[in-house]
């Protein structure tokens, strides 16, 4: 198994955890990521500590509370492949959250360093930015859940729907240099769901000097780690691919650099 793939547990832990990435386990500084799969009626309560958190309700409905807020009956999609925007909750550091599952529930817990600059808030589906990016067989659907234009200290969160036979995170791009305004340094996780679930996605992670050059076969429910390098994704024919991206770094801005060998693709006439 590649060190850049994190698998899900078959049976959730006591608090519903099936997958966990910490800065320590990933060997980096900023991004933490977990997936909880909870049963109806189950409750999970946690302190945020020094991390800000974005709870993304991937599927199912829940009540979510923080120290000062309560949102009841949030969540609408029962599968990410409904392709409707999710409900999410932003929780600052030095706060707490409690999730009570009203149905079977899958929640992504996205974490990065917080500085206490923003209050807890609900991110409703109508507040999620919708975008169709690319063209032809590099067209994909984007939901900007927590983009840099919206308040947070470190986190950037986005979900992507890649139709079968299409590519995404394409042309290959990277964001591994702290070299603003041209490029920002951002660690990144990809959490994959695949439909039908016996399928797979393919992701390549590589650097210009090929000191890192891995081609990953990623299954439903797995996460990939992108510490550096270019990182395109392909959805094989017959299998639609969803992924949730979490990014964070020293500066909260997404400035990427396309692989110069492949950047010409964006200049090709869209009628081709």
Report on the architecture of this protein.
Helix content is 1%, strand content 48%. It contains one helix and 25 strands. The strands form six sheets. A seven-stranded antiparallel β-sheet has the order 1-22-19-24-14-13-12, with no helix packed on it. A hairpin with a 6-residue loop joins strand 20 and strand 21. Its EC number is 5.3.1.30. This is 5-deoxy-glucuronate isomerase. It comes from Gordoniibacillus kamchatkensis. One of its GO terms (molecular function) is isomerase activity.
Précis, in short:
It is an enzyme of class 5 (isomerase). This protein is mostly beta strands and 272 residues long. It contains one helix and 25 strands.
**Looking at the structure, what is the overall shape?**
globular
Q: Tell me about the largest β-sheet.
A: 7 strands, antiparallel
Question: What structural class do the secondary elements suggest?
Answer: mainly beta
**Percentage of helical residues?**
under 10%
Strand order of the largest sheet: 1-22-19-24-14-13-12
User: DSSP strand (E) fraction?
Assistant: over 45%
Task: Note the gap between the termini.
Answer: 38 Å
- Mean of the pLDDT scores? 96
- Tally of strands: 25
Task: Write out key terms for the chains shown.
seven-stranded antiparallel β-sheet; globular; 1 helix; six-stranded antiparallel β-sheet; mainly beta; single chain
Secondary structure: elements and pairs:
Layout: E1 5-6, E2 17-21, H1 23-26, E3 32-38, E4 43-47, E5 51-59, E6 62-66, E7 70-74, E8 88-91, E9 96-101, E10 105-113, E11 121-123, E12 129-133, E13 140-146, E14 156-162, E15 167-168, E16 173-174, E17 176-179, E18 183-185, E19 187-195, E20 200-206, E21 213-219, E22 223-226, E23 233-234, E24 240-248, E25 257-258
Antiparallel strand pairs: 1-22, 2-3, 3-10, 4-9, 5-8, 5-10, 6-7, 6-9, 8-11, 12-13, 13-14, 14-24, 15-23, 16-25, 17-18, 19-22, 19-24, 20-21, 20-23
């Amino acid at each position: 198994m590649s060190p850049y793939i994190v698998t899900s547990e078959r049976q959730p832990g006591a608090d519903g955890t099936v997958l966990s990435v910490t800065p320590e386990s990933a060997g980096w500084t900023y991004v933490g990521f977990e997936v909880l799969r909870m049963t109806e009626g189950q409750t999970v309560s946690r302190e945020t500590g020094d991390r800000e958190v974005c709870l993304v309700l991937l599927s199912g409905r829940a009540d979510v509370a923080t120290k000062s807020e309560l949102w009841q009956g949030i969540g609408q999609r029962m599968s990410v492949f409904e392709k409707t925007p999710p409900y999410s909750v932003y929780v600052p550091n030095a706060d707490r959250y409690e999730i009570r599952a009203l149905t079977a529930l899958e929640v992504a817990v996205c974490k990065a360093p917080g500085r206490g600059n923003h209050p807890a808030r609900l991110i409703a589906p109508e507040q999620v930015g919708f975008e169709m990016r690319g063209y032809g067989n590099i067209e994909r659907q984007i939901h900007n859940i927590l983009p840099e234009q919206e308040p947070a200290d470190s986190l950037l969160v986005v979900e992507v729907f890649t139709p079968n036979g299409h590519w995404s995170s394409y042309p290959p791009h990277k964001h591994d240099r702290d070299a603003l305004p041209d490029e920002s340094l951002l660690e990144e996780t990809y959490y994959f769901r695949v439909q039908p679930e016996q399928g797979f996605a393919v992701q390549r992670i590589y650097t210009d000097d090929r000191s890192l050059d891995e081609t990953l076969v990623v299954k439903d429910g797995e996460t990939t780690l992108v510490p550096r390098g270019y990182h395109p994704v392909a959805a094989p024919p017959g299998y639609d691919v969803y992924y949730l991206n979490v990014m964070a770094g020293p500066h909260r801005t997404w400035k990427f650099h396309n692989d110069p060998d492949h950047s010409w693709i964006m200049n090709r006439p869209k009628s081709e």
